[in-house]
Design brief:
Number of domains: 2
Low-confidence stretches: none
Distance between the termini: 24 Å
CATH topology of the largest domain: Four Helix Bundle (Hemerythrin (Met), subunit A)
Radius of gyration: 21 Å
Strand content: 15-25%
Largest sheet: 5 strands, mixed
CATH class of the largest domain: Mainly Alpha
Strand order of the largest sheet: 1-2-6-8-9
Length: 342
């Protein structure tokens, strides 16, 4: 159970939520665990087997408190709101911003500031772990990403911003193979390939990115945003452009770091990957299960969120970021604060 900026996140399985006078009372195993005044809340997000009484549902509906339900692993199921909902206004604002080139560029830049910042952190962390000198390959790449961050700060327009992203990606993935310390022959990385991935490392990254994208879409749905209409990624039929936008800053911190750790700790091995006749590489069922378990375990780790200054599990970072994005789109915040790990 976590309360972050007037949003209550319930992750304890079997919890019961009910209204007690003017508070939300959370009970677990017939014991009162938490009581929060209704007027302090703007939303409640329930993960997995969380029960809500009809009385509390009605109270939330009349007070404009949204109730969102997700599976235990974070897949969005639905949202309950009263007859007067701000979501139509929020989405109209989202669409207007998407049609505004300057507003789109401003948000796109923020997403990429987080992505590049987290990429730099990962490279420096790996350099320290390998006792590499500051002027070694990873250190030099981190310094170049610092230069790309300065470029990004000065870039104007989406084309220019995307150009900086492309150069930064070339720098980052150009040294990605150096992050892999074990099983080098089986998991060597010469560049990013997708649709389809052509080697085990790319297959692992693609699978983790798909999980992260699903989490981002769920978080956006929980706050009432349309995952299909984004700012950095171009709109296409069936493409969750805003989901792709939101996941960008979390790729290095969650997916890339986990992929490298799984390989270096030999939690995944080459025999867990199969190549088709076309050259596409995919994970077998046993390896997928192993990666899913590791992904969920990683998301349970706690950290201090740099903007909210609160300690939360990593699984809630994407939800906090989605809510911050909604506040920016609604006009409650001037700029979107990207998440950068420490």
């Amino acid at each position: 159970m976590t309360n972050v900026h007037n949003v209550l996140y319930i992750t304890t399985q079997g919890a019961w939520l009910r209204k007690d006078h003017e508070t939300v009372l959370v009970r677990v195993e017939r014991q009162n665990r938490l009581a929060i005044p209704l007027h302090h809340l703007e939303g409640i997000v329930c993960f997995g087997r969380v029960n809500v009484t009809p009385n509390l549902l009605g109270a939330c509906a009349t007070r404009g408190i949204s109730l969102s339900f997700l599976t235990e692993t974070g897949r969005f199921l639905g949202r309950v709101e009263g007859p007067v909902s701000g979501n139509v206004l929020l989405r109209r604002s989202q669409y207007r911003r998407a049609d505004d080139a300057e507003a789109s560029a401003r948000l796109a830049k923020s997403f990429l500031l987080g992505k590049l910042g987290n990429a730099r952190v990962l490279l420096l962390r790996s350099a320290r772990e390998q006792a590499e000198p500051s002027d070694g390959p990873l250190g030099r790449a981190a310094a170049r990403i610092s230069e790309h961050l300065r470029e990004l700060g000065l870039a104007e327009g989406l084309d220019s911003i995307r150009g900086v992203e492309g150069r930064a990606a070339a720098t980052y993935f150009g040294v990605f193979d150096r992050l892999i310390r074990r099983q080098k022959e089986d998991f060597s990385f010469s560049g990013r390939t997708r649709r389809p991935p052509r080697d085990p490392m790319n297959a692992l990254l693609s699978f983790l990115y798909a999980l992260l994208r699903r989490d981002a879409e769920s978080a956006l749905g929980a706050v009432g945003l349309d995952p299909q209409v984004g700012y950095l990624h171009v709109d296409r039929p069936g493409r969750p452009s805003l989901g792709l936008d939101l996941m960008e800053e979390l790729r290095p911190a969650l997916a890339d770091r986990l992929a490298v750790g799984l390989v270096n700790l030999a939690q995944v091995k080459a025999r867990g990957f199969d190549a088709s006749a076309t050259g596409a590489v995919s994970m077998n069922e046993a390896t997928r299960k192993e990666v899913l378990v590791a992904y969920q375990k990683r998301k349970q780790e706690s950290l201090r969120h740099p903007f909210t200054d609160s300690t939360i599990p990593l699984s809630l970072v994407v939800h906090v970021q989605a809510r911050l994005l909604a506040r920016v789109i609604r006009g409650d915040l001037a700029d979107y604060p990207p998440f950068v790990s420490r």
